[in-house]
Specification:
By secondary structure, this protein is of the alpha+beta class. It contains 3 helices and 7 strands. Helix 2 packs antiparallel against helix 3.
């Protein structure tokens, strides 16, 4: 079974001060999710993605009921990628993604199993 790594830019929604977060028993979302375009991240299931997700290298954060992930230590994540037996193109893809997440703290991963 494969996994999709879906990348989002997550931002907090700034509601007006008089906005009621809960009406009629429903809660408004607190965060906005913008999926990264394919030009920045390829969400296809490729060799190594499942092991990458299961590597234990990530911290999690709950946003509106779903957990999203980022590397706890980018150097360790890069070292993990370098030690894997993956096709070069797949390694490069993960390296580029790590670089992108390291420079943009709003990018979080969602794992869809």
């Amino acid at each position: 079974m494969g996994v999709h790594i879906i990348a989002y830019r997550v931002s907090k929604i700034d509601y007006p001060a008089d906005h009621k977060m809960e009406q009629y028993g429903l809660r408004d979302p607190e965060y906005r999710f913008a999926k990264l375009p394919d030009s920045e991240w390829d969400p296809l299931r490729l060799a190594g993605d499942r092991a990458f997700c299961a590597s234990g290298l990530f911290v999690s954060q709950e946003f509106d009921g779903d957990y999203h992930y980022r590397p706890e230590d980018f150097s360790k994540a890069r070292e993990w990628v370098s030690n894997q037996d993956l096709p070069a193109g797949n390694k490069d893809r993960l390296y580029r993604f790590l670089d992108l997440m390291e420079t943009d703290e709003s990018i979080w991963m969602y794992f869809s199993w």
